[in-house]
Design a protein that fits this description.
Length: about 475
């Protein structure tokens, strides 16, 4: 930390990073008197999207983009346009949304072997997880009178579950991992008690892309008479194709008897536009716990399936369109390219970069740590070379989640060459503080968590400075 940390020039630099357009485009702080021309707006938006897409399109970004096929995006945008303005809350006006939503759920249920197509379409992975959490809390309250609910999950379960638990007063009990970086089922069993509303497993987890032992978790859930939610937000729409392609995919879906709900994101490997995910339930009673109906409001009888009120028909229609136009053949071909690119990356690291060790044997991402070099220094060097990896902690590691754009010819080989150079850089700069590892250092401060939370809160404040002055 420099001596002038927190100075006006630091703040300006940070604002320039967060708001790179503030010096080159008009900044609106008030609705303009007469509207800007559509042409000007389109030109400005097109320029920004072109610049921002360039890195991802080159295949140097981990995760985030998934399809990468701009013709596909264009088609989805065309479909979106037809219903962008439609509010699916008004079902009498838009019965097409009822059809599309039902078919999205049916297709997902078929893919994950749900005995009956019972589900909802939500706005994303976090939304699906939080709704599942709510349904389990209500179920436990109604059925067993649980007033001090807890949920038992692997430490690697997605953080949105913690957010939801925090909002809903649910205690989170962290189950540790085995040496293979999947949840330790025996340790999890010890954390379950009469107030446990459900247990969770991931397929695969965000950090390492690994599939928890869902079969054993299913037995535990049945044994204790509680639900098991499988978070397939990330892997859900990829694993069925991996299985068909002959990859070793342990059982994770509704074929495992104890699994009671699954979340899977259409806006990730389902290749839909951002803003949708599917939450499936084994039975309709649990799903009904998330329904909301009000009979005595002056605004009228009100009914909604979850937190959202108005929802755009465009997203429902375009998600449906993504699924039916990809088709099984399209999903399979894309999965094949993604999985084989990841195979190349894993094999290359094992062969040429002994300083790194791959965490587990993930199918669609490669997550690596090191006993020899500081992986955050490796990340610094990769960043310099235009790569955008995801930095992890506990233990320090990086992951490369392989998606469509990364499957372009030459990307994996190029990455391996750059990774080798990045590790050499880290060897040469051993002991120096890493730029991308700032958070890591903070974690070791005496009141690390408090300080870190305050700093992170400050980052959010900075991101939400509305139209900062230049
Ligand atoms: C395993 C897993 N679950 C949930 C989420 C949350 O999804 P979203 O960002 O769509 O809210 C993610 C996001 O990457 C994930 O990897």
């Amino acid at each position: 930390m420099g001596e002038d940390f927190g100075s006006a020039s630091d703040l300006e630099r940070m604002l320039d990073d967060l708001f790179p357009y503030r010096r080159i485009t008009e900044t609106y702080r008030r609705i303009p008197e007469s509207g800007a021309s559509r042409e000007e707006v389109l030109t400005e938006i097109a320029a920004m999207s072109k610049a921002e897409d360039a890195v991802g399109d080159a295949g140097r970004v981990s995760g985030s983009l998934y399809s990468g096929d701009h013709e596909h995006y264009h088609f989805l945008a065309q479909v979106f346009e037809h219903f962008a303005h439609a509010n699916v809350l008004q079902r009498d006006m838009y019965p097409s949304a009822t059809k599309s939503e039902g078919e999205i759920i049916a297709m997902a249920a078929d893919l994950f072997h749900d005995p009956q197509p019972v589900g909802v379409v939500t706005s994303g992975g976090s939304d699906s997880l939080v709704h599942a959490l709510y349904a389990y809390r209500e179920e436990a309250r109604e059925r067993c009178g649980v007033r001090m609910p807890n949920i038992v999950l692997p430490v690697t379960a997605h953080v949105a579950l913690r957010k939801g638990a925090h909002w809903m007063g649910i205690d989170v009990r962290d189950a540790p991992l085995t040496d293979s970086f999947v949840v330790d089922v025996d340790a999890m069993a010890k954390l379950v008690d009469d107030d446990t509303i459900a247990i969770v497993g991931s397929a695969g987890d965000y950090a390492h892309g690994l599939i928890d032992p869902i079969g054993q978790l299913g037995e535990l859930a049945q044994d204790r008479g509680i639900g098991l939610h499988v978070d397939g937000c990330l892997g859900g729409f990829l694993l069925p194709w991996a299985e068909q392609l002959g990859y070793d995919v342990p059982p994770w879906d509704f074929r495992v008897p104890g699994v009671t709900s699954i979340s899977a994101d259409t806006h990730k490997y389902g290749y839909a536009l951002k803003g949708t995910s599917v939450l499936l339930y084994r039975d309709a009673t649990l799903r009904a716990r998330q329904w909301f109906a009000s009979t005595d409001w002056p605004g009228g009888l009100y009914l909604s399936p979850g937190l959202a009120g108005s929802r755009s028909g465009g997203l429902i229609a375009s998600t449906w369109a993504a699924m039916v136009t990809m088709g099984r053949a399209g999903y399979l071909a894309k999965a094949q390219a993604i999985l084989s690119t990841n195979d190349t990356i894993k094999a290359g690291i094992r062969r040429d970069i002994p300083e790194l060790s791959i965490i587990g044997d993930p199918l669609f991402m490669t997550s690596f740590m090191s006993d020899v070099v500081d992986v955050y220094l490796v990340n610094d060097a990769l960043k310099e070379r235009g790569w955008r990896m995801n930095a992890l902690q506990l233990p320090p590691a990086l992951h490369f989640c392989v998606t469509g754009p990364n499957t372009q010819a030459g990307v994996a080989v190029d990455f391996l060459a750059n990774l080798r150079l990045a590790v050499d850089y880290a060897l040469e700069h051993q002991g120096e503080p890493a730029k991308s590892g700032a958070m890591y250092g903070f974690g070791a401060m005496p009141d690390g968590d408090q300080t870190l939370r305050a700093v992170m809160g400050g980052v959010l404040d900075a991101m939400h400075v509305a139209a900062p002055e230049v």
